């Protein structure tokens, strides 16, 4: 064969093989044993899941049940010795928010408000949101194509128990507020080395 390996095999094929080789834990159902953050930073057991909007907050401000992610749970891949200085072990979770709902779709402004009111207070240290186009089969087997928002969270593995509860609260609140069947959750089982 002639040509570089990317020409012979195809970059997309290689990327797909790499992504399929990485184990990722996925959950599409929201948990029922959830808690909300209290004023002291501890979790509060109040029955209300969603946070109330803060009228003083500036818009645009920007950090599984049965699946315990204790700090020891995350295998840590070796990193080059020259890169170890300042590296922190973080957990990575991605949430996929569909926008199709009865009657219309979740608008960019509605999602921005949800982000400001429900997500940012729970993860004030930082997060990333990406817009995408997705598709899935619903519970009746119908193929649904819709715009989506992908939330990427990186948080210290030492805080995984608290972060897990906050993530599940976000999922449950979004499903309730926008009449969604689920919010897909994907957790990377390996620690990510993060540098600031």
Question: Would you give an account of this structure?
Answer:
With 196 residues, the chain is α+β, with helices and mostly antiparallel strands. It has 4 helices and 9 strands. The strands form 3 sheets. A 5-stranded antiparallel beta sheet has the order 1-9-4-8-7, covered by helices on one side. Strands 2-3 form a two-stranded antiparallel ribbon. Strands 5-6 form a two-stranded antiparallel sheet. A hairpin with a 5-residue loop joins strand 2 and strand 3. The N terminus is likely disordered.
Strand order of the largest sheet: 1-9-4-8-7
Strand content: 25-35%
Mean pLDDT: 74
For the record, the CATH class is Alpha Beta
Radius of gyration: 19 Å
- Which stretches are low in confidence, meaning pLDDT under 50 for 5 or more residues running? 1-24, 29-41, 57-72
- The tally of strands reads 9
- From the spread of the alpha carbons, the general shape counts as globular
Encode the helix/strand succession as letters. HHEEEEEEHEEHE
**Biggest sheet layout:** 5 strands, antiparallel
The name of the CATH topology is Alpha-Beta Plaits
The DSSP helix count reads: 4
Main structural class: alpha+beta
Through-space gap between termini: 44 Å
Q: Give the domain tally.
A: 1
Helix content: 10-25%
Known CATH architecture? 2-Layer Sandwich
